[in-house]
Amino acid sequence: MEIRKACSRRLRGCAFASFAYLATTALSVWLLKGPMTDAPTSLRAMVSLLPLIPIGFAIREVLHLVRASDELQRRIDLEALAVAALVVGLACLSLGFLVSAQVFEIKGSSVLIWMFPALSVTYVLARVRAQRHYR
Question: 126 and which of 48, 83, 95, 116 could share a cystine (Cβ 3.0–4.6 Å)?
């Protein structure tokens, strides 16, 4: 039962960090497109990196969650992480081939911004699938 409490506490921490990420991203974009349009580059760089703070907290919570889990749960997490990395990597490779064949055009900054959220969502979906597999 103690593991469940730790797990739910860590998941609440991840949820809070996710909402904080959304809020800081919205704030950052608003500031950079609005009041800070003509701000010095160093200040714009700091504001653009603001969403990394809650991501750091989410990473910390996930690490604590994995460390508190048993061997089966670690196996599930490892499998989910491997699937997420492979799926997102294959999607990026496919997009790269399509862009190099001039099927369509993508800005590099757009791809880079969506990498971590794509990995996170794919990890969660793969984790749910792996948990069902090991039931």
Answer: 83
Residues 2 and 65 in one domain: yes
Report whether 24 contacts 54 (CB < 8 A).
yes
82 and 38 housed in the same domain = no
User: What tens digit of pLDDT does each residue of 63-119 get?
Assistant: 888 888 889 989 999 999 999 999 999 999 999 899 999 998 888 777 888 888 899
Q: Would you give the end-to-end CA distance of the chain in angstroms? A: 18
Same-domain check for residues 29 and 9: yes
Query: Residues near 4 by Cβ (< 8 Å), separated by ≥ 6?
Result: none
Indicate the number of domains in the chain.
2
Q: What is this structure's pTM?
A: 0.77
Closest CA to 28 of 49, 43, 57, 55: 49
